[in-house]
Design goal:
alpha/beta; D-Maltodextrin-Binding Protein, domain 2; 2 domains; five-stranded mixed β-sheet; 10 helices
Length: about 260
């Protein structure tokens, strides 16, 4: 039985300076969920847990955003895919995004291959944009020996940027949406770094719900999200968050890419 208290989580791009816009976006989404007949809609976003898997796997999850790699691996069969938001950020194409490989200001560095072996900062081993895509690109580079002299787990894309800027790592792969949003709200964090290469396109960070959500409710949730994306009262929040559209990328496409 699902608890009367349900969870909503939009922590993937939830920087402190963006939280007012995130809160407005969630209030708008929640209103559209209720208008479509859904019940027990959370009033507020949950920001009380340190491990998002605790929410993603919760039996009373209502709505969340996750990364494609967890979706197809640790969360496989434990959540349902609702759809994928589209972002207005350099590197995005519709519901697809990519990683940006960044380095310090060393002018001798022309691309990822020329930097290896290198110290790499990654947000997490289960991050597609921060680690898995790097592995796939490096696998196609002809070189002797290990590509990374050190792998530093930073805990977040923002902290990976900090490590590169501070000279504590040579490279990092940054989700292009994160990179654009940090450029909007904390541009100083990007100073002293530059993009040296782009990773391949992949399906973006999807919206999900719990595995046993009723199919009729899933359809209502999808319609509600579509309603929120065209609601003029939410235009400012969407612009701040760089949200521009909502699409459905089949789970099979995530599985194909997120190996």
């Amino acid at each position: 039985m699902v608890s009367d208290i349900q969870y909503a989580y939009l922590g993937m791009y939830d920087f402190p300076t963006l939280r007012p816009a995130q809160n407005t976006w969630w209030k708008g989404l929640a209103g559209h969920f209720r208008a479509r007949g859904l019940s027990k809609v959370p009033n507020d976003l949950n920001r009380s847990v340190s491990d998002p898997y605790d929410l993603w796997q919760a039996s009373n999850l209502f709505f969340a955003q996750t990364c494609g790699y967890p979706l197809t691996h640790r969360l496989a069969g434990k959540v349902q895919l609702i759809g994928t938001p589209c972002y207005d950020a350099p590197g995005c194409q519709g519901p697809q995004y990519r990683s940006l490989f960044i380095a310090g200001p060393d002018s001798a560095i022309e691309n990822l291959a020329s930097m290896l072996p290198a110290r790499i900062a990654i947000n997490a081993k289960d991050s597609f944009s921060g680690w898995r895509t790097v592995c796939s690109v490096v696998d196609n580079i002809d070189m002797d020996g290990e590509p990374f002299s050190e792998v530093v787990i930073s805990g977040s894309h923002a902290k990976s940027i900090d490590l590169v800027r501070e000279g504590k790592a040579d490279i990092a792969a940054i989700d292009c949406v994160t990179h654009a949003l940090i450029g909007d709200v904390e541009p100083g964090r990007l100073e002293g770094t530059r993009i040296v290469e782009q990773g391949p396109l992949a399906p973006g960070l999807p919206y999900i719900t719990r595995a046993n959500m009723d199919a009729q409710d899933i359809r209502a949730m999808t319609k509600a999200v579509e309603d929120a994306f065209i609601n003029p009262e939410l235009a400012d929040a969407r612009q701040t968050l760089r949200l521009i559209d909502f699409d459905f990328v089949p789970l099979s496409q995530y599985v194909r890419i997120m190996k």
